[in-house]
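Problem: given the chain below (317 residues), write out its structure.
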Amino acid sequence: MHKTGAPRGLFVAEVASNRPICDQHYRLVLRLGSFPPCRPGQFIQLQCRHMGEQKGINEVDWPQGALPRLHQPELVDKEPLLRRPISLAGRRDVQGLVELDLIYRTIGTGTHWLSSARQGTKLGLMGPLGNAFAIDHSKPLAALIGGGVGIPPMIYLAQALAEANRQVVAFCGIRARNLLPLKIIEGSQPCVRGTPGMCAEEFAAVGAKTVIATDDGSFGYHGLVSEAFEIWTDSVRPAGGDLAVYCCGPEPMMRNIAGFCLKRGYQCQLALERHMACGVGTCQSCVCKMKTTNEQGWEYKLCCTDGPVFDAGDIVW
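Solution.
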């Protein structure tokens, strides 16, 4: 995995756009005056609340026989105190400014608040955080496998791989058509047999073919995205030394992909997902088990600082 060594920092970003792209999903573009170098696989911690000084602990009177009057934003206005970790889906350096692309799903209080942020809204963020996917220049073929909110970092990675002259095939898994956070090229349809095609605009823009799999069969291949990937490898039969696999998404999916790749001898990197309170290793809440040579054979690593990207062969599931 690639340790960037780039400094992280606290920044104030302006919302350039924040638009729904499918059910429960939004594409957010943040504009900043500057931002450190970043790479696919890294993430930011985004503050989902209005800018301003955060008040500390306050005493609240609780009158006998009555309810207390709460007034802090995280209690009454649904503005979370903690930042939310969101992976980077892209970056552009334009006319002395930096634009960061984020794709998020409205799941809880923080992301629901974020969906209401209008153009021009100022948001605080910290980043870039974590390590990044490592591009192996000895492998000419790359398979990118994203499930649900694991699809956005694959968009960023596809751009980097294309710049490195790698051949890219993307596999995107979702529960149903209405949850696909990609734009389908007009007049195209993903193959129901799982054959890669130029159907998703975000990947086609860098010359990458895409397979789309839905659990309910409403779009593209009917079944798990891991199944579509296995079918493709059986038909193409890439040599182990030629293929690099990158994956992010639900843990059961990543576990299946990791096991398959280890059995076939494919290099595989996984971007793990964990709940994070701080993103910098202080809270110790995002631990994951990794193999090691100590007596018990494993140790805890932090997803936020040691990861989120790990080699498939190092993970203890």
